[in-house]
Design brief:
single chain; 190 residues; alpha/beta; Rossmann fold; 7-stranded parallel β-sheet; 16% strand; globular
């Protein structure tokens, strides 16, 4: 593993715990020599984790749609900033650059990115680990819902196991680094 894509809020959230978790994850990425791939913004938790990795001497690659650059949210000090045409290109490029994925607290965009990576894993489109940094129990209810969906027969147990979760940045990164792909059905490709 060389780099981790982190999905997180473009706002800081209402609790200091979220910023603390972003800083802890950044510190762990730097300590383990892992580069950060993220959405390229200078705001919210996105800016927090990027700033912390950069301050620690780590590499940060941002991928941002041109429309967001025009709104002046692009981070000006990244190791690399790739400007892409739209959100679809952004997600595909981030997935291509990363060896694993972590979702931190965030809103609809964070959830959409997380579930797309889980779905791609379930379908065999990639074999990379996907994790939740469950800062301050932010994702407790989501994890309970996924267990419920599995219990009710809407998700196979092996697909539920695709999502790793921990409240500790160090533990979550250890889980990602040690992860081995769960065997899932591969769809024929045309």
């Amino acid at each position: 593993m060389r780099s981790v894509c982190v999905y997180c809020g473009s706002s800081p959230g209402s609790r200091d715990d979220y910023r603390t978790a972003a800083e802890a994850l950044a510190d762990q990425l730097v300590a383990q020599g892992l580069g950060l791939v993220y959405g390229g913004a200078k705001v919210g938790l996105m800016g927090c984790i990027a700033d912390r990795v950069l301050a620690g001497g780590g590499a940060v690659t941002g991928v941002i749609p041109s429309a967001l650059v025009d709104l002046e949210v692009a981070h000006p000090g990244l190791t690399t900033l790739e400007v892409v045409p739209d959100m679809h290109a952004r997600k595909a490029r981030m997935a291509e650059l990363a060896d694993g994925f972590v979702a931190m607290p965030g809103g609809l965009g964070t959830l959409e990115e997380l579930f797309e990576m889980l779905t791609w894993s379930q379908l065999g489109f990639h074999a990379k680990p996907v994790g939740l940094l469950n800062a301050a129990g932010f994702y407790d209810q989501l994890l309970a819902f996924l267990d419920h969906a599995s219990d009710e027969g809407f998700m196979r147990v092996e697909h539920r196991a695709l999502l790793l979760a921990s409240g500790s940045a160090g533990q979550l990164l250890s889980m990602l680094v040690g992860w081995r792909s769960v065997t899932v059905a591969k769809l024929p490709r045309s």
